[in-house]
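Hallway conversation turned thread

IA: we were arguing at lunch whether anyone had actually written out Cobalt ABC transporter permease end to end. Turns out nobody had. So, for the record, here is the sequence (259 residues) and right after it the structure tokens. Reply here if something looks off.
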Amino acid sequence: MGGGHAHPLYRDDDSPVHRLPAEVKIVCLVAFVLAVVATPRELFWPFGIYALIIVAVWAIARIPLRWILPRMLIEAPFIVLAVLLPFAEGGERVDVAGMQLSVAGLYAAWGIVIKGTLGVAASLTVAATTAAAELPVALSRLRVPAVIVSVLTLMIRYIDVLTAEARRMRMARISRGDSPRMLHQVGATAKSVGALFLRSYERGERVYLAMLSRGFDGHVPALAVGAGCVASATPRQWVTALIPAAAAASVALTAWVTL
């Protein structure tokens, strides 16, 4: 896996956040999300502070809003679900614009929307500043089980290969008169998906046997610093990177104290 391999959500830059080792960003992300999730949904001010923390990180990472906001639409299905909760929940009800809505449902909808939005924003921030080649090494440094790291490494490497193969199969069908948008071609599309699955399975077996023949023991070897992997995080980098997570944890603790 070359150092130039990048996933679609990565935004190439040389900001201080980009230069941080991936393991500290992963730990910061997990701690920040846990703090957001643990915050009582009945309070509103903590989520405003969480949003300010994320915006501050965006400014440091030089991530423009026009780049990240369209990519946050991935949470749209959850927002649709949240909109239905005030109508479906029971208990105390309140009149809003002539409609009787559940108070518990409104709080539940608010909690899903705001916590989901903050979680997606934080995850996109890490994705935008972390190259794909850094993730397996970072997980290894965090003592994640080797089998999970191996699966992630192969997924990153071969997802582009499988996507390109699916694109070639689609072009081959179209060149032979197939119309993927027509309902009567559903069978051909399903057969293509099945064929792609079988090819992927066979490819996986061949790759695994090739890895065994080269001495693979279930562990991903550490990459050199010049091969797309930065050096391990220093204590100073850990302290600096965990400032947003520590701030979020302090806000969550304060929220519970003042509730």
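OS: looked through it. The radius of gyration is 23 Å.
IA: good, adding that to the notes. The chain is about 65% helix and 5% strand.
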